[in-house]
Sequence to fold (357 residues):
Amino acid sequence: MLDHFERNAKRRFRFLIFFLLCILLLSITFAVTLGPVKMSAITVWKIALGHLPFIGDSLEVNWSIAQERIIWDIRLPRVLLGAVVGAGLSVVGVVIQALVRNSLADPYILGISSGSSVAATLVILFGALPIFGQYALSFGAFLGAMAAMLSVYLLAQVGGRIQTTRLLLAGVAISMIMSAVTNFIVTLAPKDSGIREAMFWMMGSLAGAKWEYIPIPAVVVLVVSLFLIVQSRSLNILLMGEEVAATLGVNMEAFRKVLIIITSLVTGTVVAVSGSIGFIGLVVPHLARLLAGTDHKRVLSCSILIGMILVIWSDVCARLVLAPQELPIGVVTALCGGPFFIWLLRRSSYSFGGGGK
Fold:
């Protein structure tokens, strides 16, 4: 009876992953076709495949140079970067919620995003880190994230051990301090145009997406995701408490440190290329638990795909709703994700860890 139930659960999970993969593929295709210049899905795929070795030589070129530049140089890197950012924020959201055992935690509750914003505003408004050239903003955001996470990490330690409550409170405190510093820097801005650019970045944007921005975040998110899926059993045990973990032979202290390091790494890498995009890391893990249950192996897999899809469509809304003006993605995710999250909380059948019936 138990084997039959497990087989059905596995079959449903495989179907769910296949369904989400199909939605993701369709989302990428349509997100690239949408814009001021309409493109057909066939043209999009021909241009994309035309840049691949071996396959590209066999395709007949029946598109214009302008279409190729729009698809290959502008829209496709933007959509793919959105997918990477969505996957990274979602994975970190799952880890943070398990780490602090709090359903309202997200990648920004530990102050990482606020640390990035301090460095990013210094770069945007005062031209800090000129040695990094065009990558100064990305490096600045990454360094800010690392500095904030290191501060939280040191503050959360008591006698060489990390306490979850102390970690959460330290994150909130650092986040508030960093936000105050950011606001102070903005008030000192020499030009009004710089203030708008800094505010736009702080609410998230993929407008500056380029192909060279994708490989590093993609590799980091992929490696961390695979590691976490392998360690899914330890994540499950993390929710059961320290006593149960010790009974099952899991070194929670070492595991927590690893989670904190990879969380800051992923968040810093992602925020560096996209700015601060809220709500994805908060909402997506709950959606994944509703669809796939509480096992972190399944929650992580579903969260990655759902996060990709949500950020892709959020970016589509951000660039089309007020076209030719563009909205920050953070505005879209908050306006769409907020009401949905409230509806989710109002469902009497849902609680942290899923299956709260």
About this structure: The first strand starts at residue 157 and ends at 158. Strands lie at 157-158, 161-162.
